């Protein structure tokens, strides 16, 4: 069974079981909340999936999102026109992504090490900038993507879905995305095919920064305040979603559809715990168990395939 079909089955089964215990779970309001919570981080999930498929890991997306969201909110408070605020968020995400990419290829370091360092640099910058206080009193226009509704869902949800569809089309049509898979599968062999490993690494990290900038606007537009710890642990949630979705952690294999469904499954798990009356402190434990089982299953399946090929 393809991973995507299994994930759909798992999501539907989980929803039905929880609804059997608490009949409010499958109400329109609950489903709408789950979709909204899951959608605003879709750009980050997509960007993280591409980074991991390329054989790298980006640990800085949560901090990049925080820098983008908080600096954008302060610009909005200062009276800067909202379209420019949005462009600022995207630009900051793009720029910080290029910093990650440049440091990685310039010093020939694993992206995980570079982004781990930058995660702490940007998080420290945010704490220094805000002194630990939340950003409040943002203007009403700040909630444009959150308040504007189309068919009962906020504009932020539709924007995220459009981005997801466009990326799923591009990954099938553009050679660059095929290069991402090739580099993740065998970095040594791609050099003989004329594919630049460094360029692929640079651009996937840059793209992930841009995606974090987009998610910053979409996620923060739901509130009239921005907490100083916004985006904390987002990178771990994104990696977990991608791995559960079938993207091989060592690169070269996986799909955006699977990564997206993995994110939806974990979001559904979090909401299920609330309706089952289970303390939220168990949320990470359940997610960790799902990730462990997923990785073990993938390892067993991959080992079986290799034995059959031999």
From TrEMBL:
It comes from Thermotoga petrophila. One of its GO terms (cellular component) is plasma membrane. The complex is composed of two ATP-binding proteins (LsrA), two transmembrane proteins (LsrC and LsrD) and a solute-binding protein (LsrB). Keywords: Cell inner membrane, Cell membrane, Membrane, Transmembrane, Transmembrane helix, Transport. It holds the Pfam family BPD_transp_2. It is a multi-pass membrane protein. Part of the ABC transporter complex LsrABCD involved in autoinducer 2 (AI-2) import. Probably responsible for the translocation of the substrate across the membrane. This is Autoinducer 2 import system permease protein LsrC. The keyword Zinc does not apply. It is found in: Cell membrane.
